[in-house]
Specification:
Blueprint lengths: L2 E11 L6 E8 L4 E8 H11 L9 H11 L3 E11 L2 E10 L2 E7 L1 H11 L3 E4 H7 L1 E2 L27 H5 L3 H13 L3 H14 L1
Parallel strand pairs: 4-7
Antiparallel strand pairs: 1-2, 1-7, 2-3, 3-8, 4-5, 5-6
């Protein structure tokens, strides 16, 4: 299956879910965005590695990296491989003794680990086809993330509750989705996209 390389574009605190963050991935050389809602701990693990901050004691993802290095495992890449009922799935592709092995993981954990190995991030083409948000050429998105301010606001629209989405028709959801994209409110767009996926 075709895999598409992704880059981390932004990370922001969630406006509608306390303790959650919106991680925005972008298609390398393309105009599609893949927003994923992740937990606070995983967001912190990603931000710390991006900013090259050394914690006093190893975090869980640092421990995984140390453990893998001790046994001569390398992480070749991570792949966001599936989307079921609004939940993303990922695989960590490892290499040891001339053999590839794949480990099931949450995308947030997989990305935090990939950063510690300098491994690339990919998504199956079907994931971007199904859940990617397309930006038109006239829409702008801030892609240059400063290390000193990696945890930044990339969402600016009105929060939306999932319960509100259940009352909307497919056409209504598509209208709301376009509005969210126009406002660059990727967290809201992700929730609407997930609701559309559940109905299809």
């Amino acid at each position: 299956m075709e895999e598409i390389k992704l880059e981390i574009l932004g990370l922001s605190s969630s406006q509608s879910q306390t303790g959650s963050f919106a991680l925005v991935l972008g298609e390398s050389g393309g105009n599609r965005r893949l927003p994923i809602i992740i937990g606070m701990f995983e967001a912190q693990a990603i931000a710390i590695e991006i900013e090259k901050i050394q914690p006093n004691r190893p975090m869980t993802h640092d421990l995984f990296a140390s453990f893998a290095h001790a046994f001569n495992y390398t992480v070749e890449k991570i792949v966001i491989s599936d989307l079921k009922e609004g939940v993303f799935f990922a695989r960590i592709v490892c290499f040891e003794n001339n053999e590839y092995k794949e480990i099931d993981a949450r995308p947030s954990d997989a990305i935090a680990i990939a950063l510690r190995f300098g491994a690339p991030i990919y998504a199956q083409a079907k994931i971007l086809d199904e859940a990617g948000i397309v930006l038109s050429e006239t829409e702008e998105f801030e892609e240059q993330v400063e290390d000193s301010a990696f945890v930044e606001e990339v969402t600016s629209g009105t929060p939306v509750k999932k319960d509100e989405l259940k009352d909307l028709s497919i056409d209504g959801l598509n209208e709301k989705l376009q509005e969210a994209i126009d406002q660059e409110d990727y967290e809201k767009a992700a929730k609407i996209r997930d609701e559309l996926s559940r109905r299809n």
